[in-house]
Amino acid sequence: MRVEDDSLKSLPISHTRAQPVFMHPAVFVGASVLLGMLFALQQWMSVRLWNYHIGIPLLLEAWGLQFFLLGVMCWLLWRWMGPRIQQASAFYIVTRLVPLSIAASVAEEMIWVLCFPYFPIRHTHMTYLQRLAFQLDAELIYNMVIFWCAFALFRGIGYYQKFREREDAAAQLSVQLAHAQIAALHMQLNPHFLFNTLNSISSLMRTDVAAADTMLEQLGSLLRITLERGQVQFIRLNDEMEFVEMYLAMQERRFMGRVCQQVLVHPELHDALVPAMILQPLIENAYAHGLSKLDSNGLLTIEASREGGCLKLSVLNNGAGLNSNPPKILDGQGVGLANIRSRLLLHYGDQHTFCIREVARAQVEVSITLPLRFSVGPTEKLTRFGA
């Protein structure tokens, strides 16, 4: 008789790992018995072709019991010695596992022979020891081969599981690194925003103390929002636009009506997810390098629209063309723009675009396209790229 239970190929070797459902003893041993039944049916069909008459119930009992015992033996090997098999040295294998394989094989045959005193069928007058010797002579090596096949499978599966664990650990480290990098970018961005705003307030203190006082209050509100968000990486576009509108109100007071501000957001996009504080640096850049150079008729348009499966964010301003800006601004390498580029790369990989172009004389547009995703909860804290 032969047995090789394919379900052995997926056995875990450590009790610290989650046990698959099929490794429950009832499932595992039951599958072994079912396989034995199939072998019994095959043998019954074979002996009929040779004109031997052996009842199918007898063959089912014999094969079923043998596969039951072999299934139990293999399951106990995994249950009791899985971790040791994974770490077994050559000395341990020779001194412990080799004797165990012999003992287990003999024990399986002793139980089987005890349960079937009429086997072998053509030698019904043999004693128990004679029948045991007959069976051991026929199947001892075969049982030991099954034992060592199970050993090899368990050891190989252990190596595979460790390989997957190392892959998972590497992926987790990659995500943690991305989170750390984004946190560092946030720490860089917030002081940059704060210093620039304080400089604006300082300049107003000499000309309009009331306006400077109002800007200080608005700055306090913006900082409170920033602190409440903490390390949240993604927020709803609606929340981002509330922050932007407060910032625009500060700039409106500073420039005293010299800039016409427009905010265009399609209603279906209010719940779209965007990286936190993604628009403010673009708006700040528009004021610093374009609108601040105008005495009147400034234009700032902020728009959020849908393009297929993508979200497009754009900031358009007049005041100065690209030719009048320093190379770092043209290449998007200023502090705010470089920060945005880095964050977009960490969040989306190559699934985004970032473009600075002159759409008309003295009109510059900065546009970003992102994969369109919608919020399913209050906030999302994890990066998408590398997660």
Give an overview of the whole structure.
The strands form 2 sheets. A 5-stranded mixed sheet has the order 2-4-5-7-6, covered by helices on one side. It has helices at residues 25-49, 56-87, 90-115, 128-204, 209-229, 237-255, 280-289, 327-330, 335-348, and strands at residues 234-236, 259-265, 273-275, 298-307, 310-318, 353-360, 363-371. It is 59% helix and 13% strand. The protein is rod-shaped, with a radius of gyration of 37 Å. The protein has 387 residues and is an alpha+beta fold. Strand 6 and strand 7 (363-371) form a beta hairpin. It contains 9 helices and 7 strands. It has 2 domains: 6-168, no CATH class; 205-371, Histidine kinase-like ATPase, C-terminal domain (Heat Shock Protein 90, 2-Layer Sandwich).
Write the layout of secondary structure elements.
Blueprint: H1 25-49, H2 56-87, H3 90-115, H4 128-204, H5 209-229, E1 234-236, H6 237-255, E2 259-265, E3 273-275, H7 280-289, E4 298-307, E5 310-318, H8 327-330, H9 335-348, E6 353-360, E7 363-371
Parallel strand pairs: 2-4
Antiparallel strand pairs: 1-3, 4-5, 5-7, 6-7
Short characterization:
By secondary structure, this protein is of the alpha+beta class.
Low-confidence regions: 1-16, 380-387
Number of domains: 2
The major beta sheet can be summarized as: 5 strands, mixed
Radius of gyration: 37 Å
Proper CATH architecture of the largest domain: 2-Layer Sandwich
User: What is the number of helical segments per DSSP (H or I, 4+ residues)?
Assistant: 9
Overall mean pLDDT: 78
**Quick one: how many beta strands?**
7
* H/E element order: HHHHHEHEEHEEHHEE
CATH topology of the largest domain: Heat Shock Protein 90
Structural class by helix and strand composition = alpha+beta
Span between termini: 50 Å
**Per DSSP, what share of the residues sits in E-state strands of 2 or more residues?**
5-15%
CATH superfamily of the largest domain: Histidine kinase-like ATPase, C-terminal domain
